[in-house]
Amino acid sequence: MEEWDEYYHSMHGAYNEAMHVYVESGLAFWSAQDSSKNKPCSIFEMGFGTGLNALMTLEYAHLHNLDIVYNTIEAFPLQYREIQELDFDSFFKLENSKNYLRELHLSPWDQNIRLSPNFSFLKNKMLLKNFKPIISYDLIYYDAFGFRVQPEMWSLEALRPIVHALAPHGVFVTYSAKGSVRRSLEALGLKVFRIEGPPGKREMLRAIRA
């Protein structure tokens, strides 16, 4: 977003950051918990952006035979022609990853679609303040723009409805390690951990509902 002087992903590498923060520290961590075996994983992503997190999650579902229900919101969608310039598919082992990314972006808003036998997808074009969760989530990817440009997205009031939608033993992950975000998550009843961050960032946050 040039007007905010903000990038969708870290300059240290979008793929590496997304893999570490959301797939390895979030999805793989959730999948490894005993309580999560043999059940679909419901995921909410705050900030669909380039679609990279969704595509990586789809690939993980394919490689690990995991059923996933994926919901995301985005208030400022990118044009698909902008996505084509990013050449994400070169990172993926998933066959037809370019076609999947195209479907993620060009599929209709507000309509549940099944992109593969084990991956269903719903995206809503809206602001977080207008989002009303109707299901509980096993995993939350919180990938809003940084605190510098959108501090309201990291407030306790903004986080409250999302955190309240987190299922028992659910996992919340974000690239942020800001103290105020940690305190808000703790105030909302989550157990919060500072863990190793992606390349270029010392720490990130992972929080768990008891």
Describe this protein's structure.
The protein is α/β, with parallel strands linked by helices and 210 residues long. It has a single domain (2-208), classed as Rossmann fold (3-Layer(aba) Sandwich), CATH 3.40.50. Helix content is 31%, strand content 23%. The protein has helices at 14-32, 52-64, 80-84, 97-106, 156-164, 179-187; strands at residues 41-46, 68-73, 113-116, 119-124, 137-142, 166-174, 191-196, 203-208. The protein has an eight-stranded mixed beta sheet, sandwiched between helices. It is globular and about 40 Å long. Residues 1-12 have low confidence and may be disordered.
Q: What labels describe this entry?
A:
210 residues; alpha/beta; Rossmann fold; eight-stranded mixed sheet; 6 helices; 23% strand; globular; disordered N terminus
CATH topology call: Rossmann fold
Percent of residues in helices comes to: 25-40%
Kindly report the average pLDDT value: 90
Fourth CATH level, the homologous superfamily: Vaccinia Virus protein VP39
**How big is the Rg?**
16 Å
Listing every helix as H and every strand as E from the N terminus to the C terminus, the arrangement reads HEHEHHEEEHEHEE
> What ranges have pLDDT less than 50 throughout 5 or more consecutive residues?
1-12
CATH class label: Alpha Beta
Report the count of strand segments: 8
Question: What's the number of helices?
Answer: 6
For the biggest β-sheet, the strand order reads 3-4-2-1-5-6-8-7
**Overall form:** globular
Characterize the largest beta sheet: strand count, sense, and whether it forms a barrel: 8 strands, mixed
Per CATH, the architecture is: 3-Layer(aba) Sandwich
Coarse structural class: alpha/beta
Number of domains: 1
Instruction: Report the portion of residues in β strands.
Output: 15-25%
End-to-end CA span: 36 Å
